[in-house]
Design a protein that fits this description.
With about 290 residues, the chain is α+β, with helices and mostly antiparallel strands. Helix content is about 25%, strand content about 30%. InterPro entries: Nucleotide-bd_a/b_plait_sf, RBD_domain_sf, RRM_dom.
Length: about 290
C-alpha cells in the first residue's frame, strides 16, 4: 500500500462525510466517522448491543467502501476504523448503529461477506467491556474512597463495587466507566508499576463479566471470590469442592455458586463457613 492510496482514502472519507453530513475525527489510533452533524452530542447511544466488530478487513479497504456496505442493514451512528502510525488500516474496526435491531441485522447479513474474492470478513456483536478489576487494595476502605483514589488518575467513572472487610487479607473491586474507550485508556494508565493506589501496587485487569451486583452482595462476608478457574470446571464441580474441607471431615453450607468465565463467587450460608473455607483453600488446587 502506497502513501498516495492512504492519503486518497482520507480524502474519500472527508468527501463521504460531507455528502452524508457526518463528523470525522482521528484520535488514539482510530479514524472516527460520525455521529451525524445534526445529532445532539449530549444524547449518547449506549454501545451495548448496538455496536458490531468487523474483522479481517483487507489492508486496502477503507471507509469509502465499508460505510456504504454497512449502511445496508441500517443507518450508522458511528464507525471506528483502527489505523496504525503510518496510516494503514490495521484490519479491524467497529460500527455502531442507532438501535440493537440494526446491529443484529448487520451480523446476519454481513458475517462472512466476501468483500474481496475469497476474502470473507468476520462480523459479530461487539462485546464492549466498561469495567476494570482492581486487586491488592486495602481491606478497610469504603466504596467511595476507592472511587476517589482511582479518579485521581482516570476520568469517566460512573460506578464501582468494593469487596473488603476484616475476613479478607486484601480488598478488591470493580470500577465501571462511561464507555469502552475510557475503560481502555484507564487500563493503559494502570500499566504494572506505573501508579500506586493507597501506597500499594494494584492489580488491574479487564473485568470478565457485565453482570451487576448490588450493595448487599458486596458487603456480604459470606461470599468468597475465586480467580483463575479453568474453563472446563463447572459450577457443580465448584459446589462440591468448596463444600468439603479436611478430606470431607467437615461439611460447609454452600447456598449457591456463580461462575463467570475464569472466576466465581461462592455463596456460603454464613460468614463462619466462608472464613473456614478461606483459611483452608488458600493453598489448595482444583483439578491440579
Amino acid at each position: 500500500m502506497t502513501q498516495n492510496s492512504i492519503d486518497q482514502s482520507k480524502d474519500l472519507l472527508i468527501s463521504l462525510a460531507k455528502n452524508l453530513n457526518y463528523r470525522v475525527a482521528q484520535e488514539n489510533g482510530q479514524r472516527i466517522f460520525g455521529p451525524p452533524l445534526d445529532w445532539n452530542e449530549e444524547s449518547v447511544i449506549s454501545e451495548k448491543g448496538t455496536e458490531i466488530f468487523i474483522g479481517r478487513i483487507p489492508c486496502d479497504c477503507f471507509e469509502n467502501e465499508l460505510i456504504p456496505l454497512f449502511e445496508k442493514p441500517g443507518r450508522i451512528y458511528k464507525m471506528r476504523l483502527m489505523i496504525d502510525f503510518c496510516g494503514k488500516n490495521r484490519g479491524y474496526g467497529f460500527v455502531q448503529y442507532f438501535n440493537k435491531e440494526d446491529a443484529q441485522r448487520a451480523v446476519k447479513m454481513l458475517n462472512r461477506f466476501e468483500i474481496r474474492k475469497r476474502w470473507p470478513i468476520g462480523v459479530m456483536l461487539s462485546r464492549n467491556n466498561n469495567r476494570l478489576f482492581f486487586g491488592n487494595l486495602p481491606n478497610n476502605i469504603t466504596k467511595q474512597e476507592m472511587i476517589d483514589e482511582v479518579a485521581k488518575h482516570t476520568s469517566g467513572i460512573i460506578n464501582a463495587i468494593y469487596y473488603g472487610g476484616p475476613n479478607r487479607t486484601n480488598g478488591f473491586g470493580f470500577v465501571e466507566y462511561e464507555n469502552h474507550k475510557m475503560t481502555a485508556l484507564a487500563r493503559r494508565k494502570f500499566f504494572p508499576g506505573s501508579i500506586l493506589l493507597f501506597d500499594r501496587q494494584p492489580k488491574v485487569d479487564w473485568a470478565k463479566s457485565e453482570e451487576e451486583f448490588d450493595d448487599d452482595f458486596v458487603s456480604n462476608n459470606s461470599v468468597l471470590y475465586v480467580r483463575f478457574i479453568k474453563l472446563d470446571i463447572t459450577e457443580k464441580h465448584l459446589m462440591e469442592f468448596f463444600s468439603r474441607i479436611h478430606d470431607g471431615q467437615i461439611l460447609l453450607n454452600v447456598n449457591r455458586v456463580k461462575k463467570i468465565r475464569n472466576f466465581a463467587f461462592i455463596h456460603y450460608e454464613n460468614p463462619k463457613d466462608a472464613q473456614m473455607a478461606y483459611d483452608y483453600f488458600q493453598s489448595k488446587f482444583l483439578h491440579n
